[in-house]
């Protein structure tokens, strides 16, 4: 019986803003994730938020009368105000800043682990100077997202966050690879503790210090592999290097790509890192991009949590809307900075979201870059 352990290349510009309905179904995200027994779904009931109101006819000036569905569900945009309230309206899940901080430590202390990360292509969105911002910056964008069109409804018009935007800002391609493997049946506690993370602790045995619960691993436990002694040990032991790299990949999933309200990452994703030489062959961009749209659908409907890779929207807002922008990093030797998010240097300070909303309300279409 186990006992508790005591543990102390890219174009230089983004795509042109497009006024169209980008129909990204959450079913694409669900269909990409398969197990041996059944398809894994992601809280289907929570994503079924499109209005089921009555159909009514409305007058469209110059075009006549058209049938329309009355939106009978609450939406964040109905509470948008320019009042003096700078308090955050959402609970933010995930932490891109912590990922970048850990990556810098890994790069300095363990070239072997860094090489594994680079070989997977995951280093591209991590080579940026990202301040530990409160991320209320993204709220003036998120609260304008409508699940009925999968677009942002701004005062000057309608815009979508496109796949090209994702690729340009993160450097992670979409549609270029195999479906991301997932296997919750194989990666149960006994298998994971025997073959991958020997010091993991089950909640049934160690309720206070648990790092495993309901077939999921805490992101806090994963970060325990990024301490100097383990990183130095990885330089002399291939097995330790691979374990640290696996924990980092899972940490990125839990804190960015698939961040959620529980601060756990499903152990079934370990299937994607069973062969570290194949990590680069999977379509991580497609899975993360779809997760972002699924999270936006929830956030727009006044669900008070921001999850998934929502932090990329902060840089999207800088690029297109130019509202409350931080300092721009100047390129060296006239070489383009890639990914595009790397050219922004957000400061560690509070953001005046009321001012951002006010500026957005005054923005006109010809000012959008």
SS-based structural class?
alpha+beta
Give the SSE string. Answer: HHEEEHHHEEEHHEEHHHEHEHEEH
E-strand count: 12
Q: Treating each run of at least 4 consecutive H or I residues as one helix, how many helices?
A: 13
Strand content: 5-15%
Q: Judging from the principal axes of the Cα atoms, what is the shape?
A: globular
Helical residue percent? 25-40%
Mean pLDDT reading: 79
Largest sheet: 3 strands, antiparallel
Compact summary:
The protein has helices at residues 26-32, 44-47, 96-109, 111-119, 139-142, 163-170, 189-195, 219-223, 228-234, 238-257, 284-300, 312-320, 353-362, and strands at residues 55-60, 64-69, 91-92, 145-146, 151-154, 157-159, 212-213, 216-218, 264-266, 305-306, 327-328, 344-345.
Structure characterization notes:
- 33% of the residues lie in helices and 10% in strands.
- The protein has 369 residues and is α+β, with helices and mostly antiparallel strands.
- Helix 1 (26-32) packs across helix 11 (284-300) and helix 9 crosses helix 10 (238-257).
- The termini are far apart.
What keyword list fits this structure?
10% strand; three-stranded antiparallel β-sheet; 12 strands; 13 helices; alpha+beta; globular; disordered N terminus
Write the SSE topology.
Blueprint: H1 26-32, H2 44-47, E1 55-60, E2 64-69, E3 91-92, H3 96-109, H4 111-119, H5 139-142, E4 145-146, E5 151-154, E6 157-159, H6 163-170, H7 189-195, E7 212-213, E8 216-218, H8 219-223, H9 228-234, H10 238-257, E9 264-266, H11 284-300, E10 305-306, H12 312-320, E11 327-328, E12 344-345, H13 353-362
Parallel strand pairs: 3-10
Antiparallel strand pairs: 1-2, 4-5, 5-6, 7-8, 8-9, 11-12
């Amino acid at each position: 019986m186990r006992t508790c352990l005591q543990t102390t290349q890219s174009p230089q510009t983004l795509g042109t803003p497009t006024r169209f309905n980008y129909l990204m179904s959450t079913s694409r995200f669900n269909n990409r994730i398969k197990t041996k027994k059944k398809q894994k779904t992601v809280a289907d009931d929570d994503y079924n938020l499109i209005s089921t109101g009555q159909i009514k006819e409305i007058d469209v000036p110059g075009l006549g009368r058209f049938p329309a569905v009355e939106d009978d569900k609450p939406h964040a945009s109905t509470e948008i105000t320019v009042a003096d309230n700078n308090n955050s309206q959402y609970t933010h899940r995930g932490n891109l800043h912590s990922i970048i901080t850990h990556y810098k430590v890994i790069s300095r202390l363990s070239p072997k682990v860094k090489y594994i990360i680079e070989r997977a292509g995951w280093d591209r969105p991590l080579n940026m100077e990202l301040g530990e911002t409160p991320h209320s910056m993204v709220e003036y964008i998120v609260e304008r997202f409508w699940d009925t069109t999968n677009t942002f409804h701004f005062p000057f018009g309608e815009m979508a966050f496109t796949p090209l935007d994702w690729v340009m800002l993160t450097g992670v391609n979409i549609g270029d690879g195999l479906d991301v493997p997932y296997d919750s049946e194989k990666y149960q506690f006994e298998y994971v503790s025997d073959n991958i993370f020997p010091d993991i602790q089950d909640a049934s045995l160690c309720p206070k210090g648990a790092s495993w619960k309901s077939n999921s691993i805490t992101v806090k436990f994963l970060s325990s592999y990024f301490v100097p002694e383990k990183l130095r040990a990885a330089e002399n032991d291939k097995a330790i290097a691979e374990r640290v790299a696996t924990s980092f990949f899972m940490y990125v999933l839990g804190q960015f790509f698939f961040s959620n309200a529980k601060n756990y990452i499903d152990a079934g994703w370990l299937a994607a890192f069973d062969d570290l030489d194949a990590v680069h062959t999977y379509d991580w961009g497609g899975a993360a991009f779809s997760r972002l749209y699924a999270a936006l659908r929830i956030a727009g409907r006044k669900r008070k949590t921001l999850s998934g890779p929502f932090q990329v929207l902060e840089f999207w807002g800088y690029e297109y809307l130019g509202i409350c922008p931080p300092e721009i990093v100047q390129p060296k030797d006239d070489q383009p900075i890639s990914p595009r998010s790397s050219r922004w240097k957000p400061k560690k300070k509070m953001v005046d979201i009321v001012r951002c909303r006010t500026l957005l309300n005054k923005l006109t279409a010809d000012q959008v870059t």
